[in-house]
Amino acid sequence: MVRMVTVTQYPDATDEVVDLVSELIRFDTSNTGDPETTRGEAECARWVAAKLEEAGFETEYVEAGAPGRGNVFARLAGSDPDRGALMIHGHLDVVPAEPADWSVHPFSGAVEDGYVWGRGAVDMKDMVGMTIAVARRFKRAGITPPRDLVFAFLSDEEHGGKYGGQWLVDNRPDLFEGVTEAIGEVGGFSLTVPTRDGGERRLYLIETAEKGIAWMRLSARGRAGHGSMVHDDNAVTAVAEAVARLGRHQFPLVITEPVAQFLTAVGEETGYEFDVNSPDLDGAIAKLGDIARIVSATLRDTANPTMLKAGYKANVIPATAEAIIDCRVLPGRREAFEHEVGELIGPNVTWTWERDLPSVETAFDGDLVDAMNAALLAIDPDARTVPYMLSGGTDAKAFVRLGIRCFGFAPLRLPSDLDFASLFHGVDERVPVDALEFGTRVLEHFLRNC
């Protein structure tokens, strides 16, 4: 006798997503940028693999170029094997956190006051938990998606993917065989804006582009000497002057297609006027509130000094000095950017690229975008999806090298008063419980119809 199994006999993915995210946060996967002190990725990756295997998946665990840099892959066959596969990717590492600065311990995974708290709650163990919950639901219930799905859980995203996505693309391209499109972090979240009629509208921001990353090292060499004497060849002075010029410089305004589309959509809803020729465009964007920090950073290139290194004693002028500059470059601007920073740095300081990752850009169209829109509307009928550019970077920078079309789509319906942008790498990082449940329902609908 054949036993008939219906989808409703299996728990809903929303039933376990909060616990999954909380457990993920309890793994301290802090990525310091130094392989000797980065920890936790392997343990967390093996836990992810066990959760997937418990539901019936076959998984592959891969260490990306160094011991402990754990990654997990699993595939779910779709009904049409001739279609390109869709990859759902998330990173397991997080930036470090100082417990003394937090209201709760950053690796507690505490569920309090309607939020799941901890480092990685929004960057990006929320999406990892939602993905695991939906994957387990599909496998247990025998749900067949319309195309093959590749679930990828990755290491080292927070330091550019050298021991994660970049290494995997270079050394294990077979893991991405057949993948034509991908979704990952920092997109699909809601932005509530005032409307012309005095109401509110939730816009869901789909990431279709992100700036390139170029971490620059400045170096100067001078003449060492006694700190009490007149000295006209000081390496510290040379680097400091170059750093100050870069840090104070405002690069030219450049309106890319995704930014123009975003501003047009917001203007239609709010009545705000965004005159791209106005010298006060940043002031107009400030009306959007907390998200303005991200949007304003996509209007132009940026070069922010982040680290300085020089000297070993108060009364010794050192022979060398160094600085690190975090540069973020708009699509199509790389050559002009390099020329501009070269002139700012000047002849007495040398510069090299410590990390150099490309910008990412795709169009806001096609069947996959339609499926995102339909999934959001199915759960939030008042939603409107709009494209935007991310000022930061994701593992998409690795995957575009394989010709994969990448989007940011980790859906969350957020409280209108939550400063979401500040939670990324911030103190008291947290994600609303109901946003996780909402996002899980949207993700399930999307993967059933992608």
Descriptive account of the structure:
With 450 residues, this protein is α+β, with helices and mostly antiparallel strands. Helix content is 31%, strand content 24%. A six-stranded mixed beta sheet has the order 1-2-6-3-7-18, covered by helices on one side. Strands 8, 9, 16 and 17 form a four-stranded mixed beta sheet that branches. β4 and β5 (115-117) form a beta hairpin. The protein is globular. The two termini are 34 Å apart.
Would you kindly provide a brief summary of this structure?
This protein is α+β, with helices and mostly antiparallel strands and 450 residues long.
SSE topology:
Blueprint: H1 14-26, H2 41-54, E1 59-63, E2 70-76, E3 85-91, E4 111-112, E5 115-117, H3 125-141, E6 149-154, H4 165-171, E7 179-184, E8 189-194, E9 200-210, E10 212-221, E11 225-226, H5 235-248, H6 257-270, H7 281-285, H8 292-297, E12 302-310, E13 316-317, E14 320-329, H9 334-345, E15 350-357, E16 360-361, H10 367-379, E17 384-390, H11 396-399, E18 405-408, H12 420-423, E19 430-432, H13 433-448
Parallel strand pairs: 3-6, 3-7, 7-18, 9-17
Antiparallel strand pairs: 1-2, 2-6, 4-5, 5-19, 8-9, 9-16, 10-14, 10-15, 11-13, 12-14
Helix pairs in contact: 1-3, 1-13, 3-13, 10-13
